Amino acid sequence: MSTTLRVMSYNILFGGVSDGAGGSEDRTGLLTSVVKAVRPDVLALNECCGFAEDGGARMRAFCDAVGMEGELAVAPSGFHVALLHREPWRPASKSTTTAAMHHGLVRMMLTDGTHEVNVVATHLNPYSSLGRLQEAQMAVSQTRPGEPSLVMGDFNSLPAGYDGPLFARRLMDEEMRPETHVCEYFARAGFVDVLAARGVTSHTYPTPLVHRPNYALAPVRLDYVMASGELASACTSAWVVETPEAERASDHLPVVAEFALGG
Question: What H or E segment, with its residue span, contains residue 11?
Answer without folding.
Answer: strand 3-11
